[in-house]
């Protein structure tokens, strides 16, 4: 390939802090949790007696499956994936910061997984330990291919980071096992997993190995989904097991699994939000690798429905706790939503794979929105507490006493019975360098998706070029680039103009450049010289956002943003009963950076009004005569990602408009 991205490195202070937090806090902490050595309380993500929350037991499950210990499987059937995502985060961390001790620990995990792998390549601790006769026979709920996909992704990352051939071999044997069992050929299972993930993993394994049948298998799973509406029901009827693999799944409709229609016919984002975006991420990558225009068009339709009718302003998705799912267009409740951290991470995967297919800033805009708001909002500033659900409005009493809001936490728990989110976030943050740029070789173009300080090495023909980026995001919109090349070279550098920017200004070597913006990018096609410098100024204004009028929860309200960040009000700064505050849209708000607050954050202050609740409301629930009275109030807003790191209390993103 004449043009490729050789490597990308992040030195950005904002993101380096997070990545170092993963390395020094999250990875060791999560290892202790997975080994049941952490002295913590594991919470249920919602009120449900079926959720196992005594311990993780994830590593112990592998030891039992490997024959090193005796015992029974504990935890969710998909518990293996917690270990795999932890391993993937370790892989990316080692690629950034070599650590012999950590690598030795991870090598041991690979060895353990290898011991747990069965003769035909199959890996799943639950079925190996408890019910080997039910392998691949309850796919609606078994998560076997979901877990397999997560291992394959982890093994690829670990092989690329450390050269561990055993990881690659185990992954290929596992993929070969799946290939031997699934397909249209006689004797094979003509079906798919209830939870998508294997589709994306197989495209990555194809990219690593060049083995066509892995891409073909991914395409098989994608095209097979939804073609036979009886598949899950038939498996349930034929299953000889006496217990459910996961309790409470038998009533789920096919929309929950995105199996109600073939993927090319699906028009709207339906069902479990994480499953949907994992499916779409796999579809987009397969479309890119196979040059499948029909698959890409299906991705475009689902993308459009998500971002124009079913996505929260924070980049969260999933409107209901029931099924952790999408509901209907414009149904975006702020205090009963789900907005799972994993769902926003999956949306980032989807967005990035769409950027591979077509250079349109709308994908990078959503990637950035989800990353800076819901994704990092899913972790406390200490790296040891996490949100499963990311609400846009919280009242502690409601979370405590309303059964319909038991999933809405006021503070981040230390761990969950279903612990998919913490290690998923760890692997996203440690792999963030992969999302900064996208290469389009036929155009000889490098597209800048994220403005993050760091360097990228580009290979053009036989020449290496280094692109050095300096960024002041998320607090200020000043970005600079310097090109390092030994000899003049032609290529296109495309710069994204974000949706949140004021009128941008661009200079090259001090000379102003007119902006010809196409699909949200400014493309500079020129012969680059050693030391060429670009400066891009993206004015950051305090913006007031309104929701579509059909979003009933946000009608008559506005939200505040600056740059990629959405801001919120917390009780800590504004007192209780935040719903009594009203704002005037023509009132000037002021921004300042506070280096002492929450590790250093930008804050917004606004002169607003708060309704007074006086004596006329004593022992009165409804009144036809009481007139509201208001008093001045200084409203203080902080970045949404930083909320719930101080005293527990109310929080609100959408504010009442006067």
TrEMBL record:
Residues 446-540 form the Non-reducing end beta-L-arabinofuranosidase-like GH127 middle domain. Gene3D superfamilies: 1.50.10.10. Residues 9-432 form the Non-reducing end beta-L-arabinofuranosidase-like GH127 catalytic domain. InterPro entries: 6-hairpin_glycosidase_sf, 6hp_glycosidase-like_sf, Beta-AFase-like, Beta-AFase-like_GH127_C, Beta-AFase-like_GH127_cat, Beta-AFase-like_GH127_middle. This is DUF1680 family protein. Residues 543-656 form the Non-reducing end beta-L-arabinofuranosidase-like GH127 C-terminal domain. Pfam families: Beta-AFase-like_GH127_cat (PF07944), Glyco_hydro127C (PF20737), Glyco_hydro127M (PF20736). PANTHER family: DUF1680 DOMAIN PROTEIN (AFU_ORTHOLOGUE AFUA_1G08910) (PTHR43465:SF2).
């Amino acid at each position: 390939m004449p043009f490729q991205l050789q490597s990308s490195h992040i030195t950005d202070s904002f993101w380096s802090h997070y990545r170092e937090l993963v390395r020094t806090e999250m990875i060791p902490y999560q290892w202790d949790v997975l080994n049941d050595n952490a002295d913590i309380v594991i919470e249920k993500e919602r009120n449900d007696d079926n959720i196992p929350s005594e311990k993780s037991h994830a590593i112990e499950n592998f030891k039992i499956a490997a024959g090193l210990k005796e015992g029974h499987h504990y935890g969710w059937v998909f518990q293996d994936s917690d270990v795999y995502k932890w391993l993937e985060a370790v892989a990316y961390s080692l690629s950034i910061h070599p650590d012999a001790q950590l690598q030795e620990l991870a090598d041991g995990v690979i060895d353990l997984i290898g011991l747990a792998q069965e003769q035909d390549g199959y890996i799943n601790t639950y079925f190996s330990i408890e019910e080997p006769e039910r392998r691949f026979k309850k796919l609606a709920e078994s998560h076997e291919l979901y877990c397999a996909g997560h291992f394959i992704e982890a093994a690829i990352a670990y092989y690329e980071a450390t050269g561990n051939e055993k990881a690659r071999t185990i992954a290929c044997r596992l993929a070969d096992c799946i290939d031997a069992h699934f397909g249209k050929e006689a004797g094979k299972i003509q079906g798919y997993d209830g939870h998508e993930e294997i589709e994306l993993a197989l495209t990555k394994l194809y990219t690593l190995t060049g083995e066509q049948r892995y891409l073909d298998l991914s395409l098989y799973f994608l095209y097979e989904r939804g073609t036979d509406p009886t598949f899950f029901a038939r498996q349930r009827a034929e299953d000889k097991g006496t217990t459910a693999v996961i309790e409470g799944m038998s009533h789920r409709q096919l929309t929950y699994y995105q199996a109600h229609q073939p993927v090319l016919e699906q028009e709207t984002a339906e069902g479990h939000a994480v499953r949907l975006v994992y499916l779409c991420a796999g579809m987009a990558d397969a479309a890119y690798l196979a040059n499948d225009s029909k698959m890409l068009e299906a991705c475009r339709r689902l993308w459009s429905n998500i971002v124009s009718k079913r996505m929260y302003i924070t980049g969260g998705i999933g409107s209901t706790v029931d099924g952790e799912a999408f509901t209907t267009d414009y149904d975006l409740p702020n205090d009963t939503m789900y907005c799972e951290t994993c769902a926003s991470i999956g949306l980032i995967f989807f967005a990035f794979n769409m950027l591979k297919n077509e250079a349109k800033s709308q994908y990078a805009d959503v990637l950035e929105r989800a990353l800076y708001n819901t994704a990092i909002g899913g972790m406390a500033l200490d790296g040891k507490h996490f949100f499963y659900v990311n609400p846009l409005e919280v009242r502690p009493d409601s979370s405590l006493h309303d059964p319909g809001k038991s999933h809405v936490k006021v503070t981040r728990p230390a761990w969950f019975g279903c612990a998919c989110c913490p290690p998923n976030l760890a692997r996203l943050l440690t792999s963030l360098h992969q999302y900064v740029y996208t290469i389009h070789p036929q155009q000889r173009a490098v597209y800048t998706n994220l403005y993050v300080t760091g360097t990228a090495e580009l290979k053009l023909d036989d020449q290496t070029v280094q692109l050095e980026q300096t960024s002041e995001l998320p607090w200020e919109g000043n970005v600079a680039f310097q090109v390092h090349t030994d000899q003049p070279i032609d290529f296109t550098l495309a710069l994204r103009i974000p949706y949140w920017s004021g009128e941008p200004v661009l200079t090259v070597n001090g000379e102003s450049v007119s902006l010809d913006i196409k699909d949200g990018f400014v493309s500079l096609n020129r012969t680059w010289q050693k030391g060429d410098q670009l400066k891009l100024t993206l004015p950051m204004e305090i913006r007031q956002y309104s929701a579509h009028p059909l979003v009933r929860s946000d009608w008559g309200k506005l939200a505040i943003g600056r740059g990629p960040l959405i801001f919120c009000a917390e009780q800590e700064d504004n007192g209780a009963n935040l719903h009594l505050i009203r704002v005037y849209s023509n009132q000037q708000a002021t921004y300042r950076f506070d280096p002492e607050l929450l590790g250093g954050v930008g804050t917004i202050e606004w002169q607003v009004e708060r309704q007074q609740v006086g004596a006329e409301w004593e022992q009165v629930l409804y009144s036809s005569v009481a007139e509201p009275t208001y008093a001045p109030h200084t409203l203080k807003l902080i970045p949404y990602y930083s909320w719930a790191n101080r005293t527990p209390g109310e929080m609100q993103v959408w504010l009442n408009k006067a």
